[in-house]
Design goal:
Layout (H helix, E strand, L loop, with lengths): L1 H11 L1 H9 L4 H17 L5 H13 L13 H11 L6 H7 L10 H4 L4 E6 L6 H11 L3 E5 L2 H13 L4 E4 L4 E2 L10 E5 L8 E7 L11 H10 L1 E9 L4 H11 L3 E5 L6 E3 L14 E4 L3 H13 L4 E4 L5 H12 L7 E4 L13 E4 L3 E5 L5 E5 L2 H8 L12 E5 L2 H12 L8 E3 L3 H10 L5 H11 L6 E3 L3 H9 L7 H8 L8 H15 L6 H8 L9 H21 L9 H20 L1 H11 L4 H8 L8 E8 L5 E8 L3 H17 L10 H8 L4 H30 L1 H8 L1
Parallel strand pairs: 1-7, 1-8, 2-5, 2-6, 3-5, 6-7, 9-16, 10-12, 10-13, 11-12, 13-16, 17-18
Antiparallel strand pairs: 3-4, 14-15, 19-20
Helix pairs in contact: 1-3, 3-5, 12-24, 13-23, 14-15, 18-19, 20-22, 22-23, 25-26
Length: 722
Amino acid sequence: GEVLKNLNKFYKRKEIQRLGAENGLDARLFHQAFISFRKYIMESSSVSADLHIILNDICCGAGKVCLLGHVDDLFPFFLRHAKQIFPMLDCMDDLRKISDLRLPPNWYPDARAIQRKIIFHAGPTNSGKTYHAIQRFLSAKSGIYCGPLKLLAHEIFQKSNDANVPCDLVTGEERVYANEDARQAPHIACTIEMCSTNTPYEVAVIDEIQMIRDPARGWAWTRALLGLCAEEIHVCGEAAAIDLVTELMYTTGEEVEVRNYKRLTPLTVLDYALESLDNLRPGDCIVCFSKNDIYSVSRQIEARGLECAVIYGSLPPGTKLEQAKKFNDPDDPCKILVATDAIGMGLNLCIKRIIFNSIVKPTINEKGEKEIDSITTSQALQIAGRAGRYGSSFKQGEVTTMHRDDLMQLKEILSEPVRPVKAAGLHPTPEQIEMFAYHLPDATLSNLIDIFVSLSQVDGLYFVCNIDDFKFLADMIQHIPLNLRSRYVFCTAPLNRKEPFVCTTLLKFARQFSRNEPLTFDWLCRHTKWPLAAPKNIKELVHLEAVHDVFDLYLWLSYRFMDMFPDAVLVRDIQKQLDDIIQVGVCNITKLIRASQSASAPGTAEVVSEDFPFSRTKRDTRVVSHHHGAKSTEALSIAVEVPTERRTRNLKAYRSATRQEDLKSHGRGSLANRLLREGLLTQEMLRQLESEWQDQHRNGREGLGSKRDDQNNPKETGKKKK
C-alpha cells in the first residue's frame, strides 16, 4: 500500500511530467508508460536490486525530517522501462525531424528552381472557369490536366484529341496513349493523384482546388499545387480557396493572379416544393443521399408510368455515362433523373430543375466518425448549379426540395457565404515511412503511421489527412510477409472498405503476391466466378458492382507490379463486358427492386442496411447531428448492439413502409416514417427507442405483477403500510 501511494505521488508531480516531456513522453505516452511501470512493480514477484533499494528508502523515509529517498529518484527506472515499451524514445530527435511537415514547399526542389505563374480561375458551377483554363492548356506546347475524377480526365483527354492536340490519359487503373507507338504525348489528362512532379510542362491545370481541404484526398491537391513543374499553373475552383492558395504561394515566393467568373445562366430557387412525384416535369433531377432513397424514388416514379435514369457513386464510369446519355437524348422517353451527389462533378447533364429529396447527408468527420448533418453551402451550390447548364436545351436552372419543410432551410443554406478553405491536406510519403521503419524495425506499418502522425508537426496552413483507410488495410494484411514498400503500395489501394468481397480479394492478392505467384487471368476468373449473368435482384447488382471494383483493383496493381499482375489487357476486356451487364441491370432497376422485395430473397435486408446510414450490427459509437430547423442542432452519441433477427425484422418493416409510402401524403402517416424520411431520425435511433420502450413496458408489467402479489399477500401489505 505504501509503494502504491508513492508511485501515484510520483505520477502526479509536475517536475516528473516535465522531465518525461523532455525525453519524448507526451501526456498520452507518459500515462501509458506509468500504467505499465506501476503494473511491473506491483505485480512482479521480484524487481532489480537497485530499484528495490530505492523503493525501500522512499517508503522508510516517508514522513521523516531527513528523507532517505525521494519519489523523484524513481525517474531513471521509469524512463528505462518507458524505453523498453516505446523503443522510439531512443531516437526521438531523428523521428521528429523525419515527421516535421512544416515546410512542404521544400519537398519539391524542381518546382522551386523555376518561377511559376499562378492564375486562379474562381467562380461557381457553370461559370466557364474551367473552359478558359482548358483553352490555355490546348494552346500550349505541353500541358497537364489534373482532375478529381476519371470521368473528368477522360473528358479532357477526348476534347484534346478531338481538337487535334495529342493527349494521353493516365489514371490509377488505365494508360491510354494518343500515339500508336506508345510514345508519350506532350499533353496529359490525369487523375490528380497520378500527376508527375518531375516532368516539366508549359501549362498545368488543377481542377476543383477547393478539394485541397478534403479529409482523405486533400494531400493530392497540395502536392500538385506545390510540386508541379509548369511555367503556368491554372487553378480552377470556388472563390473560398483564394486566400489559402495565395498564402501557400506566398511561402513559395509566387504571386497569384485571380480571375473571377459569374454564372453564365440564371439559377432560381423556387418558392414551392415538389411535394408529390405527380408534379414531375421533363428535365427534373431528384437528388438523394442514400442508395435506399434512389431505389425507393425510382420505384415510385415507375409506378406513375414514367421512365427514369439512375446515377450513383458506386456505378462504373461507363454505366454513369450511358445513363447520362439516355437522360440527355431528346428522342429517348427517359426524361427524369434520380441521382446522388455523384452528379456534382464529372458529368454533363441537361437538367432543368434540381429537386433535393433531403437536405441531410451522412458524412465522415475529421476523426473518422460518421455524422448526419445538413449539406454545406458548398455542396448545395455544387449540386444546384447543375441545373440550366450553359449550352444545353434549358437556358435557366431551377432548384427546390421534395418536402415543404426543407425549402426554407435550403434557401438559408444557399444564401450563406461559402466557408473559406482554411488548410491544405498532407500525407506521409513512402520515403518518410521507410526512414521511420529504419529506426523502428519491429513496429508494424499501422504503428509506424500512428507514431508518425502523433509526432508530426504542421503549421496552421496544413493538416494531416485522415489515415483510417490506410491503417485498416495495414492491419488486414499485417500477417502476410511483404517488404515495406510493397506493403505500403497495397495499403494505398483505392477501395471501399465497406465492401467485404473487395477487401477479401485484396487479402488474397497480397497472400499470393507474397508467395511470388503471379495473379493470372484464369485465377481472377475462378475467384470472381466469371462469366457472370445479368442481375435478377438488387443484391446481385450490388455484387456485380463489387466485382467491377475488384477488376479496377487488379488493374491498379498491374501498373505497380506488372510481373505479378500480368493480364491487364484481358481483365480490361472483361471489365468492359461487365460494365455492359451492369448497364442492363441499372436500366431495369425497378424490376430488380420489385424482385428483391417480393421474393424477400436471403440477404436482401443486408443490401438495404448496407446503404442506410448507421445500420450496423457491430457495437460502434457514432456521432449524429440531429437537425430540427435551420439553427437547432443536438449531438447524440449512440452505442447499441442490435440482434440480427430484430434488425432484419425492422428492415423488412421499413421496406414495407417505403413501398406503401406516397409522397403526396407528406405531413400525414406515422410520425416515425415522416422523421425517417426527413432525416431527423435514423434506423439505429428508432431501434434504440423501440428497445427502451420495450424495457420500460416490461418493467411496468413486472411492477404491476409484484403489486398484485403484494395485494394477494396480507402480511406483505401490512409491512408496506407500516
